[in-house]
Inverse folding.
């Protein structure tokens, strides 16, 4: 990039010296080749992300079309059996276990994350914040495969000892969901805390001035005022849970099963994609195409959730900024 | 200067030798001040002189500032607000506050008024609450503007209306004193005038202390005036306190005179 | 107490009732405060449990059975022997032909001390793990362990083992957990990250500059911005699928290295994984970069323009140097994300068993998280020990990266 700068300056020097023969200087517009090249490169960088999205849509779309030539969309969306060996391609078992693990995760992450956000934003002293916030940040930085290990080696034995060895499968959705919930707490708490901190101080003072306690101020004034930001955090959290792969791949099981029992093994959408693509897979097989149909479903779900979330955040900002 | 007064019957709030610190910094130096019952007392002075700090110390709003500490006494019904066994929540219910920028809650107009009574253990029926809301809005001269849109958000009102909503909200918890921290600084002249008229009305029922940076407002709309100034250590001090008419026409302290004449040109 | 609204009956509690009302509200407040605090501390507990569970598997007793008792090999402990003595041990306990084969492969004189030591272990001692214990058991139930070893494995030796060690870091993958290491995975991760940064940094910073300094507020640029925000929320496994189709299959002639004369058979190479990771971390890098650039005060730009600088000169000499600490911090955070990502690597096709060091961008490779995933999935308890050890290696890498980010942030935020 350094070269480009000097090119830009050189070209200018040449143009000015040419003009010096006729006039002492010129205020006319000069074309700066170097600047244009750089701007072109920067534009390319910005536009590259568009290609990524287009790439995702084309890749998922075209492979899915190949899949849906052989399997009808209706079957894909309504069949409760996913078993490529016998040509059964119903996404419901995968979708169900994705939703089950995500729901369990949300039961942990949403209340805990929100309560932590309230504590950090409304109660914590500067000292307490300086200790607790980094802990949550570290928790957010732990790779998901490590959480997978934690689910399989800690949460599953714990569940077995609480609910009985025989009642809990070694691979089960509850374990994966609970640990996923722990993983998502920092996301919920940091986004919710942002929402709560953005509520103007004046509103808190207004409540205190009427004789409200700290709790009443937090719950009845600050929380309602920041609610759209908090819901946005919740929606992003759901999207994270739906898209999470490694925890479920390690701990939830490797067989698509249509079951509502969280203590049974059942493969999720992401877990299935990881397992199938991890094996030696022929690019021409319907198995290969099928994971793209699952991927497309997953992509549309998370995209929808993220768009809802951002709309909520924007509405929240419009009120206070 | 104020004469030493111990008779609290005449005075709603008696401030004795108050010092306020932010961490190690002394923001207020030895202020003593008696606020008369059912009168409007204006706190004036150049910016940074600590008038807002004094006001916020009168209902323990300074508790909410990290590192803030108040020394001395503020007597209210012969009880020191800063005694160990005094509950700040109870204090703030009895001594209400209206802030510089209108800060209605993002709730309906009705709920803005009902909020205070509800959290403070209101024991009435729905229709009694309706009555209370109406009464407070009437007292704040807002009823006619909003009676048809009580369910609409308080944020939908104009700035002046919002401020009157905040006053109505403060009245709903039946305070004895209303502290106003530059309540008109964010308002246009017409809204300001309305608030001043409202203060004159409310004076019959409530004791009012108001901080203002606008000397004309103090001269127009107050019974007593306290003039504050920063000393050499940047701590706020009370320079002169007396009936508004006296202080503006016949200031005893040279500094007060300078300030008043300087401002009035 | 005088109520000033004497004309109307007050619905608010007065006197004693008021005091009771406040006391009960205070109690409620205290209870909820405790609940909120507990929720916050829950994170700390979860983190401690996680670390405890990892540490618990990293150290502990191991019952090992040797083909030859190490004590009979020499009168000194094995690890105190020098190389010549080790060679003598080797010579004395192997068949002549076998020893000669080794000598032909690489003369003993050319092998390092530790290589010879490893040979002694591998060819003479032939250790076999019979049973392993966790740190907690080793600590609190030593007596029970002793008893169990005495009754079940009378031939075995009980050793306290740290599964993580220098040899764990420096030996390649092996199917025997006692001898397995993360060397290949570590190198694979480092190669991948290096190439990822090489691509992602200029493009990420470039895009951030474009969006903050050049892009006007029009429809086109708004779409780009929205698109980047959307991409940041796409699950990582989707990036893996994109990488599989584009980099592994479509661009196979490039990513397999065939165009550069380094054919590795197919596109499942380091460079394919790096490009996938680049797409994954670009949105994060761009968003962080934009924030850093936005934080540079406008006055600085105006001062530069006022001296007749062009737009790019202003950016290069004034905006970027001031935004750089923020950009670096953002980059480090993005890298930490890439180091720990597993799902896209699985889909792109990182190998799970590979023993040769990666020798360039077109090599087949494995990576630390892949290794952890693979070992965690094995049911045998020995693999839990090495999975935990690999986790320690990964976490230490991430923590050091984050420490660098924190130092950078503090150093530069003080200066600003």
């Amino acid at each position: 990039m350094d070269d480009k700068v000097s090119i830009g300056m050189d070209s200018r020097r040449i143009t000015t010296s040419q003009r010096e023969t006729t006039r002492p200087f010129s205020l006319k517009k000069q074309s700066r080749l170097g600047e244009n090249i750089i701007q072109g490169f920067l534009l390319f960088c910005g536009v590259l992300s568009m290609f990524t999205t287009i790439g995702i849509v084309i890749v998922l779309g075209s492979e899915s079309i190949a899949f849906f030539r052989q399997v009808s969309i209706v079957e894909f969306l309504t069949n409760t059996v996913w078993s490529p060996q016998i040509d059964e391609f119903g996404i419901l078992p995968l979708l169900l276990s994705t939703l089950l693990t995500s729901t369990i995760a949300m039961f942990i992450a949403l209340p805990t994350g929100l309560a932590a956000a309230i504590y950090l934003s409304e109660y914590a002293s500067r000292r307490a914040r300086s200790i607790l916030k980094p802990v949550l940040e570290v928790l957010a930085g732990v790779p998901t495969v490590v959480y997978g290990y934690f689910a399989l080696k800690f949460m599953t034995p714990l569940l077995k000892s609480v609910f009985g060895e025989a009642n809990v499968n070694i691979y089960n959705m509850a374990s994966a969901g609970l640990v996923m919930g722990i993983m998502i707490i920092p996301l919920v708490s940091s986004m919710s805390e942002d929402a709560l901190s953005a509520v103007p101080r004046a509103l808190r003072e207004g409540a205190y001035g009427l004789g409200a306690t700290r709790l009443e101020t937090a719950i009845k004034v600050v929380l309602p005022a920041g609610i759209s930001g908090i819901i946005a955090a919740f929606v992003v959290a759901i999207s994270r849970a739906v898209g999470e792969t490694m925890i479920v791949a390690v701990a939830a099981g490797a067989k698509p099963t249509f079951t509502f029992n969280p203590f049974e093994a059942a493969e999720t959408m992401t877990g299935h994609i990881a397992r199938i693509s991890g094996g030696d897979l022929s690019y021409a097989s319907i198995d290969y195409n099928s994971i793209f149909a699952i991927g497309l479903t997953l992509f549309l779900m998370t995209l929808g959730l993220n768009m809802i979330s951002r709309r909520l955040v924007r509405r929240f900002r419009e009120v206070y900024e | 200067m104020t004469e030493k007064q111990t008779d609290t019957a005449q005075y709603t709030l008696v401030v004795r030798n108050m010092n306020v610190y932010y961490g190690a910094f002394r923001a207020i130096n030895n202020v003593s001040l008696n606020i008369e019952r059912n009168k409007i007392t204006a706190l004036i002075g150049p910016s940074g002189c600590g008038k807002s700090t004094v006001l916020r110390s009168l209902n323990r709003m300074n508790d909410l500032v990290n590192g803030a500490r108040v020394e001395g006494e503020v007597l209210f019904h012969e009880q020191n607000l800063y005694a160990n066994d005094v509950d700040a929540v109870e204090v703030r219910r009895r001594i209400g506050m209206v802030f510089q920028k209108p800060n209605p809650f993002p709730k309906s107009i009705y709920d803005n008024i009902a909020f205070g009574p509800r959290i403070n253990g209101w024991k009435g029926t729905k229709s009694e609450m309706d009555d209370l809301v109406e009464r407070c809005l009437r007292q704040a001269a807002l009823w006619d503007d909003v009676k048809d849109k009580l369910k609409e958000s308080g944020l939908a009102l104009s700035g002046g209306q919002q401020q009157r909503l905040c006053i109505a909200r403060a009245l709903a918890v039946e305070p004895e004193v209303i502290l106003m921290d530059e309540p008109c600084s964010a308002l246009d002249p017409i809204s300001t005038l309305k608030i001043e008229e409202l203060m004159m009305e409310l004076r019959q029922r409530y004791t009012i202390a108001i901080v203002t940076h606008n000397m004309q407002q103090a001269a127009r709309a107050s019974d007593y005036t306290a003039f504050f100034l920063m000393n050499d250590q940047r701590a706020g001090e009370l320079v002169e306190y007396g009936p508004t008419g006296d202080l503006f026409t016949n200031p005893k302290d040279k500094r007060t005179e300078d300030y008043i004449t300087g401002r009035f040109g | 107490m005088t109520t000033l609204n004497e004309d109307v009956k007050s619905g608010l509690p007065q006197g004693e009732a008021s005091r009771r009302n406040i006391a009960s509200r205070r109690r409620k407040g205290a209870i909820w405060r405790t609940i909120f605090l507990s929720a916050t501390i829950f994170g700390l507990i979860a983190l401690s449990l996680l670390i405890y569970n990892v540490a618990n598997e990293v150290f502990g007793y191991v019952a090992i059975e040797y083909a030859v008792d190490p004590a009979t090999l020499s009168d000194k402990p094995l690890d105190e022997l020098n190389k010549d003595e080790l060679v003598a041990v080797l010579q004395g306990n192997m068949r002549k032909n076998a020893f000669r084969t080794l000598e032909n492969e690489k003369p003993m004189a050319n092998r390092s001390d530790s290589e010879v030591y490893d040979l002694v272990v591998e060819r003479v001692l032939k250790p076999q793990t019979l049973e392993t214990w966790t740190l907690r058991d080793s600590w609190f139930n030593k007596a029970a362990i002793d008893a169990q070893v005495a009754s079940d494995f009378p031939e075995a030796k009980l050793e306290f083992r740290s599964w993580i060690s220098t040899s764990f870091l420096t030996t390649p993958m092996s199917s025997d957990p006692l001898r397995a290491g993360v060397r290949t995975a570590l190198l694979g991760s480092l190669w991948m990250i290096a190439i990822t940064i090489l691509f992602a940094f200029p493009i990420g910073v470039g895009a951030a500059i474009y969006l903050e300094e050049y892009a006007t507020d029009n429809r086109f640029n708004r779409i780009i911005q929205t698109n980047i925000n959307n991409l940041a929320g796409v699950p990582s496994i989707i990036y893996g699928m994109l990488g599989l189709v584009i980099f592994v299959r479509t661009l196979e002639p490039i990513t397999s290295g065939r165009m550069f004369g380094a054919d590795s058979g197919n596109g499942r190479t380091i460079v394919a994984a790096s490009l996938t990771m680049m797409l994954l971390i670009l949105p994060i890098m761009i968003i962080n970069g934009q924030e850093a650039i936005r934080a540079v005060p406008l006055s600085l730009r105006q001062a530069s323009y006022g001296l007749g600088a062009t737009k790019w000169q202003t950016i290069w000499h004034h905006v970027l140097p001031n935004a750089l600490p923020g950009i670096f911090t953002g980059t480090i955070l993005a890298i930490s994300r890439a180091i720990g990502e597993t799902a896209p690597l699985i889909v792109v096709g990182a190998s799970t068993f590979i023993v040769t060091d990666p020798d360039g961008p077109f090599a087949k490779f494995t990576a630390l998280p892949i290794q952890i995933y693979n070992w965690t999935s094995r049911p045998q308890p020995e693999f839990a020990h090495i999975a935990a050890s690999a986790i320690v290696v990964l976490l230490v890498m991430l923590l050091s990266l984050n420490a660098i980010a924190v130092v950078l942030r503090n150093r530069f935020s003080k200066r600003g």
